[in-house]
Amino acid sequence: MCGIVGYVGSPEENQNYYALDVVLEGLRRLEYRGYDSAGVAVVDGDGITYAKKAGKVAALESELAKGVFPQSKVGIGHTRWATHGGPSDVNAHPHVVDHGRLAVVHNGIIENFAELKHELSALGYNFVSDTDTEVAATLLGHIYNEVQDLTEAMRQAANRLEGAFTLLAIHPEQPDRIVAARRNSPLVIGLGEKENFLGSDVSGFIEFTKKAVEMPNDHLVVLTADSYEIRDFAGNPATGKEFEVAWDAAAAEKGGYASFMEKEINDQPAAVRDTLLGRLNEKGKLTLDELRIDESLLRSIDKIIVVACGTAAYAGQVARYAIEHWCRIPTEVELAHEFRYRDPIITEKTLVVALSQSGETMDTIMAVRHAREQGAKVIAICNTIGSTIPRESDACLYTYAGPEIAVASTKAFLAQITAAYLLGLYLAQLRGNKFADEVQLILDELRAMPEKIASLLERSEEIAQLGRDMKDASSVLFLGRHVGFPVALEGALKLKEIAYLHAEGFAAGELKHGPIALVEEGQPVFVIVPSPRGRNSLHAKVVSTIQEIRARGAVTIVIAEEGDTAVEAYANHIIRIPQTPTLLQPLVATVPLQIFACAVAGAKGYDIDQPRNLAKSVTVE
Ligand code: M6R
Predict the structure, then answer these.
(1) What is the pTM of this model?
(2) Which numbered atom of ligand 1 lies nearest the CA of 408?
């Protein structure tokens, strides 16, 4: 929710770019975090020059093209996902107050803004927007006029604000700096040569530097061209952890695809491969060095709770089958936003696994905090190095999917399943449920997955054509059993998110308990069919389900293994997936559903990467 960029260059340096160029580049890359409006402000002599516009960054750029913007070396920018106040020019950030001398951008929600607004109104301040940000900016300006120092003003303001915020401020009386504060909202510092950067995440400055610093929570930073100084909200000096960004700017480009989502679907073989890399030692033993949790403690775990939201929660649901099967540890999956409110039973023997692509999902952060307060150990599975969830967890198993830009998650899902499976195998190995040779066998199967996914991607066009043909459907149902059930939920979520099409995922066994009443002539129904090989009776049961819905007029789109002839009599369309053990099947069965949703959305002319009302990471509760 909302992307923030800041840049301080040195006036003496001859970089052939200015704050505006850096900020716009960062905003383009951070736009996936929100695209209701965009804006930029720079220090300009003894004032501030700014521009802001409702709509995407492109609308701001058109606005800027109408005039000449100052060649300043200090600037801030914002791309918004609206919370307080609708998407309009006036509600767009930056908010410029204090007679045009103080510019502020903000990500988060100020929970006590009404009370502060009341207090500031009584002092004679007027407000032009509906935002909580303008209140925070006005408060900052008010304090600045008392203390005449932006850092001290920010410190005092931060202590008055409740809720979540990253705030960046510039003022022409201290023209060499940006002062920023963060509480429960993301912020990363980028380090350059005689220039420094701020971003909601590293993509805000990846074009310029790969050296970054994790900004600690409840801290502020004073950023100049050649220094960064972190302090806590009491004013004490502090430090942040420096790190090197593992991917380059090209990884966050479309690479010739029409959309990021398409590119990211095609990145999936690499996402799975890279997540498996380097996690086996020379003796074939699974070693997860990142799990700095005492092994005896991990052996004593008697319950696992996976917390996550959206697609990540579906990855958790898939992982539950594997973890319980391999480790024999009772495993629950809970939506992070429900977790602490149901008063879950947590002891020191509970292991909480937090799944998150961004590492910044506020609901999941709050679940992690709750779990740790109750004494549980928390392992994060996350795709974003240096983000909040790994930092606040006891350990983190990173996924290596590379940057995921499209709002609809694809490669992160497959990478999350892969990492969660590694964790399950590791625990099974540690606790003696599985011996090295068994672990090795499953790992060999996992290692074969990237190639299987790649072979499936070669048939993308055939699946996309099906999507284009079905673009006018008014509703699509998805059915699956066992690990196929969360895959069905994920398939439905993809269609809802990007094609704005009513879609529901059901456990196929539940159909006769109600949902079958939805099936009428022409109703498209995807069915994910488990492998007919191996010792399970689910294959026959799912084939019966297809038969039952087909008899009631459904148009059946069956996702079945190569060679599975039993489904042929009842399928209107068959999408073949490579033969795969059932537990690993989600890594291939999900892919056609992603391609289908992408094609439907494309055929409808929708913005695939930036669907309406959504943002990539949900950083507010
Ligand atoms: O960054 P996270 O993995 O924590 O995000 C969780 C969900 O918000 C996310 O998966 C969301 O459901 C996606 N838009 C799904 O495509």
Answers:
(1) 0.86
(2) 16
